[in-house]
Amino acid sequence: MTASANCKKSQLRFASTAAILGGFLMGANWIWQGYLDLIAGADSILHDTNHLAYYVNNSMLLVASWFLLHGLFALRHQDPAAGNWVWKFGFFLSALGLALFGIGTAGFLFHGLIGFGSLLDFINISTGIGSLAIHLGALPLGFAILHHTSTPRYSSLLFILQTPIVIVYLFGLVPLNPLLAGILIGGLYGSAWIIIGSYMRKYV
Question: How many degrees, rounded to 5, is the angle at CA 178 between CA 176 and CA 184?
Fold first, then answer.
C-alpha cells in the first residue's frame, strides 16, 4: 500500500470518528438544552458568561460543527451521487450551515472570554442562519443518500425527517415540549451522523 493510500485511509478513519463524535455532541447538546428549557429559569445558565455551562455548551457545539464538517467532506469523497444536483444542494447547505454555526459558537466563546458585545448581533445572525441551513440541508442530503449510496437507509430517513420537524417546531404547528423537540431535532440529526460515521469506519 502506497504512502498516499495510507494517508487517505487515515484521513477517512479520522473523518468517520469525527462524524460519530460530532453527531453525539450535537445530539446530546440539543437534548441537554431541551431538558434545561423544561425547568423555569434553568436555561439562563447557558447565556450567563460567568457560568461554566455557558462555555461547555458553546464548546460542545463548536467541536460538533467542526467534526461534522470533516464527516460531510469524507462522505462527499466516497459518495457516487457527488455529481447529482440534489446531493450538491444538500452538501452546500449543510457545509454552509455547519461553518456559520461553528463561527457563531466560536464568537460566543470569545464574547465570554474577552467581550464581543459590539459583534453579538452578527454572532446571533451567523448561528441562526447556520442552524436553519443545517436542518434545511438535511432534507436533500437525506434524499441523495437514500437513492444513490450504500449508506444505511435509516440514516437518510433521520435526515429527511429533520426539515418537517423543524418547520413544525419553529412555526408552532404542533405543540412540542422542549425536551421532545431536542430529541426529535438534535437527537435524530446526531444519530444519523453516528450511523454514517460507523458505516464509514467499518469500511476503512
Answer: 70
* HSE, side-chain direction, 13 A CA sphere, residue 123: 17
How far, in Å, CA of 124 to CA of 106, rounded? 11
Q: Provide the 8-state DSSP code for 44.
A: G
Question: Comparing C-alpha atoms, which of 135, 64, 139 is closest to residue 104?
Answer: 64
Give dist(CA 161, CA 92) in Å, integer.
19
Is residue 25 predicted with pLDDT exceeding 90?
yes
Question: Are 144 and 81 spatial neighbours (Cβ–Cβ below 8 Å)?
Answer: yes
Q: Which residues contact 36 (CB under 8 A, 6 or more apart)?
A: 42, 43, 45, 46
Q: Quickly count: other Cβ atoms within 10 Å of residue 146's Cβ.
A: 18
What are the C-alpha distances in Å from 171 to residues 132, 146, 182? 13, 27, 16
Q: Tell whether the model's pLDDT for residue 4 goes beyond 70.
A: no
Q: Angle CA(114)–CA(115)–CA(119) in degrees, nearest 5?
A: 130
For 46-74, the pLDDT digits (tens) are 888 888 999 999 999 999 999 999 999 88
